[in-house]
Sequence to fold (329 residues):
Amino acid sequence: MPVTRTEFGQVDGEDVYKYTIENSNKTRISILTYAATWQNFEVYEDGEYHSLISHFDDLQSYIKTPFQVGKTVGRVAGRIGKAKFMINGKTYQLTPNNQSNLMHGGDNGIQTKNFNSSIDEAHNSVSLSLIIKSKDDDFPGNIDLMITYFLSDHDEVSINYTAVSDADTLFNPTCHIYFDLGEFSIMKDNLQIASDDYLDVDDEKVPTGSLIPVDKAFDFRKGQIIENALCNLEKQNGKLEFDDTFVTHGDRVATLSSGRRSIDLYSDRNGLVIFTANPTGKKTPHQYSGLAMELQTLPDAVNHSDFGNIILRKNQKASYTNKYQYRKL
Ligand code: G6D
Fold:
């Protein structure tokens, strides 16, 4: 039984389902139709299951959380400065939902929708589909979106986002996963990021357009223990949490490891946002329980010509894939 389906509650009168895909190593991932959420990632070690991600076991917590735990966010995941952008010479002014900016595609983004779903047993995958309506989120274009979760026998989870729009629009979604490898606290885990630069941002966390070469707290090239990096961060700029974007170059982007477990992240886009948080409310401030690692084209790309192209042209297909591979060390 590689793929199973159970009921996970109801939202707006619709059933929400949880799918679980299991591979030959007994590794399993669970996915919700609500917000196309990656709900759990469990590995089987020494006769027991261990979860590697922050998660909830009930739908209400997913509906209520402001932390987007495991959800698909978008149509544009990162911040758009002043909630404003231009396509084909036309300016679009959307309603800001994060200070004066637009975050996660607005308050009616993908993260608020319940998806249609189907199983492909032969490929150990679950597909979730949805029309993102222009009238719901005020972006131009209705997007026909398909998100496919796939688990390989090499413990690699891939999430593919395929989209076709009926008008030129923006498309840059991601999975707002928080890792918590569960062996120690996330604070003791080692984070390595293949990045030489991170984004300069203004007081509202919107990119200014400049890149800053990584140093001290931001230099994860050889790996840093998260607790040490946070200490360095406070010394460097007085901040108590990471909520920052690293410029990456495709393929292997980052590795998070605890004593015996590690996760490698692979991407076909050019940015990684990391965010330290307590997304399930378990620990006290500044002793973080989860690390969000969001693979995407750089935030606010539509307003910076050298940040990458997130314009999805009418009737052309966009396809992005995020990959996350578990290894037992
Ligand atoms: C993203 O960068 C943002 C954070 O500022 C936000 O708080 C979080 O999503 C929920 O990571």
